[in-house]
Amino acid sequence: MASTADFKNGLCLEFNNDIVQIVEFQHVKPGKGGAFVRTKLKSLTTGRVLEHTFNAGVKVNTARVETRKYQYLYKDDSGYCFMDNNTFEQTIIGEDLVSNPKMLKEGQEVEIIFHAETEKPLGCELPPFVELTVTYTEPGVKGDTATNTLKAATLETGAEIKIPLFINEGEAIKVDTRTNEYVERVK
């Protein structure tokens, strides 16, 4: 149990038969009436963000969640298969729990969030940046660089993103997994 005075970003709570994480909170003490806490809560099971106001001093149930490092192995009909780096146990997770499945590359390390009491996986977070190889793109035309022009490219995982004209097939690039945007060329 925790009270609203214990709120901090990242704290996980049991709320409305769901497990939510505090994304943002603000203590408000108006001149008239009692104090309250405005929060933005992100559901760890659905990913939805909702706003809720708690009266100051209210007790809430905290949820214990654990983050563990896993390695992505493969995808089949049952879902995405990951291996625990310490115990070598394999876990299969549905596509809805993976934050950005199009950027998953075999052998890549990810963090899987588990509910500590039930050992149920709640989500899979990719690292912020991944290095992938461009498998197909149209060749850039010389002289088309007057502005920041982008062209379509297909990566080794099958994902399609926009890249600058000077990047060619076979080159490795760094991609932001949160926005699916090109960051830089890998040297």
How much is the average pLDDT? 89
**What do we call the CATH topology of the largest domain?**
SH3 type barrels
* CATH-derived architecture of the largest domain: Roll
Biggest β-sheet description: 6 strands, antiparallel
Poorly predicted spans: none
Could you tell me the number of beta strands?
16
Overall SS class? mainly beta
Head-to-tail CA distance between termini: 50 Å
Task: Describe the model.
The chain has 187 residues and is mainly β. The chain is flat. The chain has strands at 2-3, 12-15, 18-28, 36-43, 49-55, 59-62, 65-76, 79-84, 90-93, 109-115, 120-125, 129-137, 150-155, 160-164, 172-176, 181-185. The strands form 3 sheets. Strands 1-6-2-3-4-5 form a 6-stranded antiparallel β-sheet, with no helix packed on it. Strands 9-8-7-10-11 form a 5-stranded antiparallel β-sheet, with no helix packed on it. Strands 14-13-12-15-16 form a 5-stranded antiparallel β-sheet, with no helix packed on it. It is 0% helix and 54% strand.
